[in-house]
Amino acid sequence: MCVLARVFEEHGLSTVALISVRGVAEQLPPPRGLYGEFPLGRPLGRPNDAPFQHDVLRRAFALLDRPSGPVLEDHPEVIESDTQPLACPMPPRYDPNLPEAVDEARGLRHAYDRTLARRGVTSIGRVLTADQVPNALAVLAAIADGADWKDAGFIGDPVQTCHDIRTYYEEAALSLLDVSPDAGQGEAWFYEQTAAGRTMLAARAQMREQGAPFPIWLYMARATR
Amino acid sequence: MSDQTLRDFAVTTPMPDMGEAPWTPLTKPLSECRVAIVTTAALHVVRDEGFVPDDTTYRVLPADRRDLVLGHWSPNFDRSGFVADLDVVYPIDRLEELAAGGVIGSVAPHHYAFAGNQEDTLTGIRLDSGPAVAGLLRDDDVDVVLLTPV
Predict the structure, then answer these.
(1) ipTM of the complex model
(2) CB contact under 8 A, A167 and B2
(3) Domain boundaries, given as residue ranges, for chain B
(4) Looking at residue B1, what is its pLDDT?
(5) φ, ψ of residue B8 in degrees (nearest 5)
(6) pTM of the entire structure?
């Protein structure tokens, strides 16, 4: 993004960049940058908080008044992520003959559909449809139990498969909660509290053991997991 | 906090030496400026093609569209905020409010998305797709570009 800011500026456009990694902006300074120590993925800081978002924009646009640059300033508020898992009501176990994650994903379908009806759009669709999420989790469950990942039946790229599964859960969770989830709580909930998240991490560990390429198993989940 | 680990890692990515930052001063009040958003969060309208790893291309985000998908391949940032509120990544409604309040002159008719935070894409964005989008922004008489990351 710092590169784009420079390209635009070279072409006669004035830029202000919201910065999520201060160290990168220090090495490759954009003309005007406002660093926000907010959860990665939330450059405006807080979802559903228009006053806070306007405060970020006001401070960013104020940098346009500076006579020269580069200029890199910090937003005064730091937003820490909570590492305690989100408390999210989950569906009961319905069919004990199915892998837990498959059963769980089926049980979340109504919640996913409610979010879809409200938002009108889903970010699922890299390789899976919502209908295919339970089957994709069955593939991960088989790998976690020792099946060879190459023959396990992935519909598409494993990294994109895992993205679609996590998106399904995050979109479903939105209909089960009254508030916008904290970034860290949502992550901890998915990887620690859901059968899908645990199955994903177990399958990823198995794939690493089986010699799957590093960029595949690594990017199946957040690098810090 | 794990975000700090990822920030520390991002700083180790080799970065080109591009010399001093260029500078285009604003020559009129912000209240008369047209503003566009360029995001590196790999957003796209729902029927457009998604982004693939090391993608250096861009997608057009018409100003009236809210049915946007977050298509970045990296699992290393939060997406639940985007699911709850588009504006936390792409503050299009906030810009509309600023235009209605006279703080900015107007909101551009087109905005743009790239896939950021990738190691091997800087040259393509620097020489090809970045200048192409700069030309499109100028065609729309944009004065100010707000860049938002993932």
Answers:
(1) 0.94
(2) no
(3) 41-148
(4) 46
(5) -65, -40
(6) 0.91
